[in-house]
Amino acid sequence: MANQTAPGTAESKQRDNNPMSDFNLGKRGCTDVFCCFLFFVFLCGWVVVASLGIMWGDPQRLIYPTDSEFRRCGVDQGGYYNFSKRPYLFYFDLTKCISYATALGGCQTTQICVEECPSQYFSYLQLRTASAAEIQNKMKNVVYCTDDVDKSTVTTFVALQSLVQRGKCVSYTVKSVPVLQRCFPEAIFNAVDNVNTVLNSSNSLDYLKRTFGDDALIPQDIQITGQSSEVMKSVVEDQPVTHKVIHDLSQTWWQTLILIFAAGMLSFIWTVIMRLLGSLLIWLSIFLVLGALGFGAGFSWIKWNKLKATGAIDDYSFHPAFDAYFEMPTTWFVVAIATSVLLVIFLLVILFIRQRISIACALISESSKAIGSMMSTLVFPLFPFLLHIGVFALWGSIAIWLASSGQEICRMKETNGQVYNTSTKCDCNAKLAGCTYVGIEKESDTIFWLQVYNLFAFFWLSCFVTALGDIALAGAFASYYWARDKRHDVPTFPVIRALNRAMRYNLGSIAFGSLIIAIVKIIRVMLEYIDHKLGKSENKAVKWFLMCLKCCFWCLEMFFKFLTKNAYIMIAIYGKNFFSSAKDSFLLITRNIVRTVVVHKVAGILLFLGKAMITLGMGILSFYYFSGRWVVEGVPKVDLYYYFVPIVIVVIGSYFMADLFFDVYEMAVDTTFICFLEDSEQNDGSLERPYFMSQKLLEILGTKNEIPLHTK
């Protein structure tokens, strides 16, 4: 009790004014408890959904292609249907499968079993002026339709168009190849085959050598494309390319890991560079833009004056050569006016926000210091990353079980050996004589809503994991900013302490914020699903309205992500509930909107430069090493089948490492910025309310503390 600070003293007021002091941290309590309870109940519901999927589903059913009526391709179900000569699955419009809506109701396009995949490019519009005989020929050999269409009766384009609009016949086909008994566009594989054909031509290769001269440079580049073609052909022709890839990975795994680790080290070095040279890089970028605009304006005015002096005329009628428009004086006059206006505007903006740019540079420097003093922040993102993998695996597994759910239907053969819809049902597991499998009966509506629940659970839990990581990092960086003495007052294990506070007090607030994002996401998916269901609706107003809704909800999602991220930072600082934190952070940012925009743009430029340079640099380095162009003394050279395989892994891994580091850096900048704004508004530099910002920030603001704090 002897060391307890007396109330009313300057020291006690400083303690109360520090939101991260032990005194204020000790006063925190649980927030948004109801949302935490709701989240727990929802997870229990997810367990029920998973149980139903496991009881009803059989993932092996997805291995075999089935048409829109759940009939297996390549199977003879005695009398009920005979697809023994139709082993391949054809999608009317494969592009409709690339959507979140596929996770809800399956691929939203008609699927039929066919004897062979399309062998040519075709559009039904080609038959607009065709004769009845031509249409009959195309209907027989090219046009794919559902089984309930009698193609022999289609003799006019109007009849075919009606079938296409009703989804009974395909509107177009592309040349396709069967992969896993499913038809996929051959163009995906054929592009590299065409390149390979050119490369195998001695004339083409000799021409390249004669043109470029350096005989040592061309073959390696050609070898990459040739190997790519070999890989793609092997995939299509089911050759054992996998064994070769596994061999290459087993030979290069340790070099690959070293290069990815080196990318991580470079990312850390970049954070140090941003601390030392961040201001220089930003101002250099600004002057380069000013110089480019100035050069463009000057060149355009000179060009315009020269063309006017030579008597050039304007003629903006159609010209096959686009360069002709740049020989007209008005073209350069417009360009000169535009670049001059942009130059003046950009220069005025820079003059107006120059102090804010200096603040942004100082905040970036402070963020680098915070990361440097808390190295655990760079490792922590692996924890939420592993959680994200687990959440994705759970969602994917449940989605597969649900998609494969349904009751197998078996019926007894009639006396004639055939099976009909009216035949007596029998137990598929009883193995009775004459009991024949005929298909799967699904509760489509039930499965659909279970898939909706599953997808919503994926969104909510993913956003929850992201929010938990954000609050933990924000709490760590806030503890650094609000420390009086940066050398001694920053707590040990700051990330673990912040994570513990978040899990102890703020799980409800995290659930609340992540619920908002999840709701917007699921609405966007439902809109996409409705759009797919409408298909080629003639009601243009409805399509336009849906497009506007999708755009609005995308913007709404971006806004809520920004709002919730800043709310999480305020929660980490003050420990308040989500609504209060979101309101306080939003009002704080709106009062400092120009500073906010400048800081985010400045940080965004530096982070983009870092990601681009690290990923590109490691890609070039790995290319020279794995292709054998760069030999490291003492390291044996590896012989690979496809040396671009480890290169791709290194590039992806390098980007991931850079993104991992810079996500931490971005959170450091955002947290430091919010703390700086709070510090600026709540404190005045007096003995009772001293600033916690660095001396450099104080100098930029033109203020100071009565008693300097230890900020180094």
TrEMBL record:
- Gene Ontology molecular function: transmembrane transporter activity
Q: What is its main location?
A: membrane
What kind of membrane protein is this, topologically? Multi-pass membrane protein
The UniProt transmembrane annotation reads 33-56, 253-273, 280-302, 332-353, 374-403, 458-483, 504-524, 544-563, 605-628, 640-658
Cellular component, GO annotation: plasma membrane
Keyword tags: Glycoprotein, Membrane, Transmembrane, Transmembrane helix
Q: Where in the cell is it found?
A: Cell membrane; Membrane
Q: Which InterPro entries match?
A: Choline_transptr-like (IPR007603)
Taxonomically, which superkingdom? Eukaryota
Q: Which family does it belong to?
A: Belongs to the CTL (choline transporter-like) family.
Physiological role: Choline transporter.
**Which named protein is this?**
Choline transporter-like protein
Classification from the root reads:
Eukaryota, Metazoa, Ecdysozoa, Nematoda, Chromadorea
